[in-house]
Structures are given as C-alpha cells and as structure tokens.
Amino acid sequence: MADQTVIGKTGRVTGKIAPGMVGEVMLPVRGGSEAFHAYAADDGVTFAVGSRVLVVEYFPPRTVLVIRL
Q1: What is the tens place of the pLDDT at every residue in 49-66?
Q2: How far apart are CA 38 and CA 66, in angstroms?
Q3: Residue 34 · residue 27 · CB < 8 Å
Q4: Cβ(54)–Cβ(6) below 8 Å
Q5: What is the pLDDT of residues 5-45, one digit of tens each?
Q6: Are 62 and 68 within 8 A, CB to CB?
Q7: How far apart are CA 19 and CA 40, in angstroms?
Q8: 11, 29 in Cβ contact below 8 A?
C-alpha cells in the first residue's frame, strides 16, 4: 500500500466522532502521522477518543469516513 494512500489505513480517534458532528483521527501517511476530519460511515454511530478505526472513504484534502475495528 502506498504511503500516501488513505483508504484502508487504520488510525486512532483523537476527537469524538458522533452523529451531526465532525471528529478527528490520526492516520499514518507520508512517513508520519497526520490529523484528518472524520465522520462515521454508518449513521448513528459514535466513536470515543482512543477508538481504533479503519478508513473506508476519502474526500480530499483532509476528510475521511471510518468504521470501527
């Protein structure tokens, strides 16, 4: 997997993801870790800070949809 690819990466939630609000995840890209805005891929799901997630969709430049691992 290319290091700049975001879909399929796993990361940790650093800002709570909940219905109607944008959260934040840290993902390993380009040789480091970067923060991305994040929404749950499934409606009505909440992810607490520290949850492990998988990126299933990417909207450049810095927004992702995630599911729980």
Answers
A1: 999 999 999 999 999 999
A2: 7
A3: yes
A4: no
A5: 999 999 999 999 999 899 999 999 989 999 999 999 999 99
A6: no
A7: 8
A8: no
